[in-house]
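Journal club side-thread
Mid-discussion, someone asked how the predicted structure for our own chain would compare to the paper's figures. Pasting it here so we can look after the session.
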Amino acid sequence: MGTRIREALLESGLGLIRHFDRRHPDPAELGTPAIARILVISSTAIGDTLLSTPAIRSLRQAYPAAHIVLLVNAPYQGLFASNPDIDGTIAYPGGYRRFFRLARALRRERFDLVAILHGNEPQATPLAYLSGARWRFKWPNNNRFRFLLSNTEPVKGWDDFPHGIDQRLAVAHAAGATGLDRHMVMPVSDAARQSVSDFLAGKHGIADGVPVAGFQVGASTASRRWRPERYAELGRQLLVAYPELRIVITGSPQERGLAEQVAQAIGDERVAVTAGEVKLTDMPALVQRFAWLVTPDTGIMHLALAVGTPIVGLFAAAHWSRSGPSADLERHIVIQKWRTCEPCLGKRCHYTAPPCMDNITVTEVFDACRQHAAKSGLAAESLA
């Protein structure tokens, strides 16, 4: 069955059910112990889910005794299971796979309220309704299934929210929360730190105390990537200026080839490639180990922000004010360039090396790294 036909049938069927839904919950119960079980949906990428953590904390503050469960993308369940503001996780399989089985499982949980912080549509809103929860909140609410939400008015789109964290906090506020803290939440355990310490020392000869700069060379879309040869030139310049420095090139298993390409082009034994070598649950500890991270707009960038690692953020197609640092701005350096294509195709960018990202020069990224090095107490021997 085609996707459009499936969605049309789902809309028609849910529209009929909604027509006969006679539930009229009392708004006075929002923000009170009457809301005992909460489902939070943040079922997309790692960075998107990290952006949801301030809103999850806001919900926990409003409902300290509630049982809060996170519906999260299945591969990332372990990464977010340690979040102190949730009591459990449910794996989201994606798309229409096991859609009705998941809906039945959610219904058995007897949730009072669902907060959709970031979820793929058209599945997220129907799942919230089919869960049986009497309250269902989401911004933006301008999709075809908005009639299933508790906040059908006013109608808002993405452009009504300055930053992704603002959008998610607005959902929490609609659900009765009031917290405004914008810091993302990602606990790092002592066990994970020790695991990373042992890994870096044993596999790459990087002892504790040795200064490390991180390079994230991959990104989820081509439009966000900086040329590998520019990372390589940056690496060579940094290692000349800071002989004690080690560079760790990180990333997913799928980015391993790109990371090795950059390392080979740098051509220095002080460069280590960890892409695909570190289990996901240890990634926060690895990123926290960096004195700073050079990164495009991608999940590892948000992970660095969450664990307090300074970044040099590389932005062009997207604007940093919508998805970049949102707290402790003095710790981070963002290099923002302009879009060179109109309209920008974003995720459908045709370029292997996007011209908008080419506007970011090695010189300005190197200068930003020098600022982070100075703040970390790392002295330059040479600026050649």
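Post-session note: The CA atoms of residues 188 and 285 lie 6 Å apart.
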